[in-house]
Amino acid sequence: MSRIGKKAVPIPSGVTANVEGQTVKIKGPKGALQVVLPDDVEVKMDAGTVKVDPRNETKRARSMWGTSRTLVNNLITGVTKGYERKLEITGVGYRAALQGKNLQIALGYSHDVIYPIPEGIAIVTPKPTEIVITGIDKQKVGQVAAEIRGFRPPEPYKGKGVRYSGEYIFRKEGKKK
Predict the structure, then answer these.
(1) Is there a contact between 135 and 117 (Cβ–Cβ < 8 Å)?
(2) Which of 33, 63, 65, 140 fits a 20 to 30 Å CA distance from 111?
(3) How are beta strands 41-46 and 49-54 bridged, if at all?
(4) How many CB atoms are located within 10 Å of the residue 32 CB?
């Protein structure tokens, strides 16, 4: 039994939900999102909640049960609160700046990295060494953060690079004489 899947997802006031077959559409103050759930689960609305149940007792149906419920919950959180991911840049001369619809990042290469900001994502740089990514789609926010981090992941000797805020970098000892 999925402990997460058993819980119904409550729909807060100001949010409208619509279930058509396997498609769940959520509309809220920050925007509208939708997700298509797998055929292994059955989704229905009742009394201001969205309920997800497995169609049969296969392993796949049970594993998709909790996942599907979480996907619906993430949509509701996204259209009400939104998602935010912070990145920190560590290193001499490493910095980030917004340039129109692009993010320009100097990461020690011979050229600056130009990252085009995708639709539905907002990026701000409060400091030259800090990037804040916000949006309503959790998957898209995480993907953009991972792509920016991928340009120069933190290295284990000096900790230089782009890291998530609060990420611990396992440090190694350097060469000995």
Answers:
(1) no
(2) 140
(3) antiparallel
(4) 14
